[in-house]
Amino acid sequence: xxxxxxxxxxxxPPRCIHCGCILSEHNGLCxxxxxxxxxxxxxxxxxxxxxxxGEKEVAFGKTLYCAMCLKKKKKLLTMQRSAFIYDDFxxxxxxxxxxxxxxxSAETLANMLYNAGRDIWKEKPDVLLPVPLHRRRxxxxxxNQSALLVKYLSAKTGIPADYFSLVRQQNTVPxxxxxxxxxxxxxxxxFSAVKPExxxxxxxxxxxxxxxxxxxxxxxxxxxxxxxxxxxxxxxxARTES
Length: 242
Description:
Layout lengths: L1 H10 L19 H5 L22 E3 L2 E3 L1 H5 L7 E7 L2 H12 L6 H11 L1 H4 L5 E4 L4 H7 L3 H13 L8 E3 L11 H7 L4 E3 L9 E9 L3 H12 L4 E9 L3
Parallel strand pairs: 3-8, 4-7, 7-8
Antiparallel strand pairs: 1-2, 5-6
């Protein structure tokens, strides 16, 4: 196998998933591109994972929470985490993966998700669910980027993947072009749990690429709560700073 790997790497050497430069090992990103990613680390909100950057955090016992999470009377998500900040560099990385057929990036990005989800893995979740695409958009795009991330995460964690229990029943307009209120209105009744027996009394982890207002994750969480999920966690590649 060592000789076979050497021959393959000689013909098709590993390349950085962003800039395309040749790498000595299958690391996914070269050192220069890796430095440009703004990974999220402590201190952060224990609930939503929002990083505290030059602002006052709120202590509740020995745990830190952001003001927004303390104001919420009902938390649909038990815990949310993201790997890095959504900025100009990470935006291009994700858009290439999402729209430009760079599916070879999936394993590297899933590894980043795995590291970001260490607090979630401690809770021993039962199943991984990708945020679904409507079938029309899936046909256009040819793949669901969140499902690809789930595939590699499932292999790495040993947690089963479920690609079919949560579906998108409405082909809504892309969220990126909408305001906060429009996003919530756009996603009303957009999702459905078609196999609630696979969700009932289970700890579920929702996987997506980016969270901005959190509307998509919350709408999915509402449906999963109605289906009887015991706990719902969310894990995304990136999150906006606001």
